[in-house]
Design a protein that fits this description.
With about 500 residues, the protein is an alpha/beta fold. It has two domains: about 280 residues, Aldehyde Dehydrogenase, Chain A, domain 1; about 190 residues, 3-Layer(aba) Sandwich (Aldehyde Dehydrogenase, Chain A, domain 2). Helix content is about 40%, strand content about 20%. The protein has 17 helices and 20 strands. The strands form five sheets. The chain has a seven-stranded mixed sheet with strand order 14-15-16-13-12-17-18, with helices on both faces. It has a six-stranded mixed sheet with strand order 9-8-7-10-11-19, sandwiched between helices. Strands 5-6-20 form a three-stranded antiparallel sheet, with no helix packed on it. α10 links the parallel β12 and β13. The termini are far apart. It binds NADP nicotinamide-adenine-dinucleotide phosphate (NAP). NADP nicotinamide-adenine-dinucleotide phosphate binds next to α8 and α9.
């Protein structure tokens, strides 16, 4: 256990107030942050409400006036320093994630390093936001484009990646010359506040990076109603994304939405089944299945379905469930007891409809004393009407279906309003092209169970969202494209 994890016990280090204009600001007494592994209290939050959100927006607006004019090389230097500090404190930041969210410590540190990679990438990429010179139809004229920072950006983030969902938005925004106000999830604010402290140490001027903690709806309304906020970057559920999009229409601000998913994991009869099973386990049980890109429907080609189920069962039998600080644990708790009850309901529906439960299938709340659910394997046969198939499971439940032919596998994979990530396992190059082109998803892993990196575009189609994070696209999102026409150059 790291030093910070030890100190968490006496709450010596936890900042629980909001961070506005470079200062820690207390609000009204609010809720507790609880460790989902044992329900122990980690911290008590205060709520700065809509008033605090408005103060942060104003601070961000004032800061924007000079931050946008700061040379991109200087901005990149500060962003890069933030990256270095995050990496330097990866052990402590990882421990914070494990304490407030529950994921196993090695996985939590992995999230910190993954999140930091976006900070590193953004610092470099912002320097390459090139405009273009354009031929025009008008004699004696020249045209060119500029990428300029969009302005104040409000970022609203979820609890499942308390650190990386913040850096993935804020780093490109800050590097591009925007200023930000972040509202983290109330379950996991400590990672956000630790990132704010490191941003302060990195040298961001006051008001460039702000974090407001408090009840969601009033803060969300303050963000979306404000004319000063020019963009809302949201990661979370599709219903809340739709609400924010509606609210943002009033001031016609840009929205970037990273929403829910219902990922199909399609395994063809020519696939390497051992590798496919490894891939399902990696995709399904990371963060106890609480990721937007988690394998939600494992669509197995009929001829290999039995072999796949046997391989998955063997893997699942070996998973060690427990508190994320314990050695060897690979599956931690769910975020809270309501999440356990939700997963229980999905499995109950499967059981009632005749699905076969090959492993797990029950909460471990009494046995382990926290919000735990057993790693579970459900065979749904051909029943794509199961609640498990039509909802984001967000829990450690793998549900496998059997389908006889490629066309039907593609049709069923696409039969969802979501379109975030999909996975295909096959060794047939023709199938790779046919299937990846036919799937209506923003990201597709072929023989690969994870698709995200700082260099590549992350995002969904259909009701999984709008916009892309990562790569050059991630920085571009936070800029406006301006066109300039100059005439009379031949006079
Ligand atoms: P959520 O309920 O939508 O909450 C996300 C954030 O939005 C939280 O900070 C929440 O605060 C806030 N929020 C809720 N109502 C709001 C409102 N009226 N105005 C402003 N903010 C509001 O989602 P979640 O349960 O935390 O996260 C799980 C979801 O996120 C899943 O659907 C998952 O797929 C999705 N996700 C998507 C991606 C991606 O990249 N596409 C990545 C990670 C997660 P409160 O909790 O206080 O309500």
């Amino acid at each position: 256990m790291t030093m910070l994890a030890d100190r968490l016990k006496d709450r010596a280090l936890l900042k629980t107030d909001s961070f506005i204009k470079g200062r820690w600001v207390a609000g009204a007494p609010w809720i507790k942050v609880v460790n989902p592994s044992d329900r122990s209290e980690l911290a008590r939050l205060t709520d700065v409400g809509a008033e605090g959100a408005c103060q942060a927006i104003e601070a961000a607006d004032i800061a924007f006036q000079h931050w946008k004019k700061t040379s991109v090389f200087e901005r990149a230097r500060i962003v890069r320093t933030w990256h270095d500090l995050i990496v330097e404190h990866a052990d402590d930041l990882g421990a914070l994630i494990t304490a407030e969210m529950g994921k196993p410590l090695p996985e939590a540190k992995g999230e910190v390093i993954y999140g930091a990679s976006f900070v590193d990438w953004s610092a470099e990429e912002a320097k390459r936001m090139y405009g273009e010179t354009i031929q025009t139809p008008f004699p004696g004229s020249r045209g060119w484009t500029l990428h300029q920072p969009i302005g104040v950006v409000a970022c609203i983030t979820p609890w499942n990646f308390p650190s990386a969902m913040i850096t993935r938005k804020c780093a490109p925004a800050l590097a591009a010359g925007c200023t930000v106000v972040v509202k983290p999830a109330p379950e996991t604010p400590l990672s956000a506040l630790a990132l704010a402290e490191l941003a302060r140490r990195a040298g961001f001027p006051d008001g460039v990076f702000n974090v407001v903690v408090g009840e969601a709806a009033p803060i969300g309304e303050a963000f979306t109603r404000s004319d000063t906020v020019r963009m809302v970057g949201f990661t979370g559920s599709t219903p809340v994304g739709k609400l924010l999009m509606k609210q943002a229409a009033g001031t016609v601000k840009r929205v970037a939405l990273e929403l829910g998913g219902n990922a199909p994991f399609v395994i063809m009869d020519d696939a390497d089944i051992d590798k496919a099973a490894d891939g399902v386990i990696a995709s399904k049980f990371r963060a106890s299945g609480q990721t937007c890109v988690s394998a939600n429907r494992i669509i197995a080609h009929e001829p290999i379905a039995d072999q796949l189920i046997e391989a998955l069962k063997a893997h699942i039998d070996e998973i060690k469930v427990g508190p994320g600080f314990d050695d060897g644990v690979t599956v931690g708790p769910l975020i809270h007891d309501e999440a356990v009850a939700r997963v229980e309901g999905l499995v109950k529906n499967a059981r009632e409809r005749g699905a076969v439960i090959h492993a797990g299938g029950a909460p471990l709340v009494d046995q382990l004393g926290g919000s735990f659910y057993a790693p579970t394997l459900v065979e749904g046969g051909q029943d794509f009407e199961l609640d498990l198939a039509n909802n984001e499971i967000f829990g450690p439940v793998a549900s496998v279906y059997r389908v006889g032919n490629e066309d039907e596998m593609i049709r069923l994979a696409n039969a969802t309003p979501y379109g975030l990530a999909a996975y295909v396992y096959t060794r047939d190059v023709g199938r790779v092209h046919r299937i990846t082109e036919a799937l209506d998803f923003g990201m597709i892993g072929v023989n690969a169970p994870m698709v995200g990196s700082s260099a590549t575009p992350f995002g969904g189609v259909k009701q999984s969202g709008i916009g892309r994070e990562g790569g050059k696209w991630g920085v571009e999102e936070f800029t406006e494209l301006k066109f300039v026409l100059l005439s009379g150059i031949d006079q």
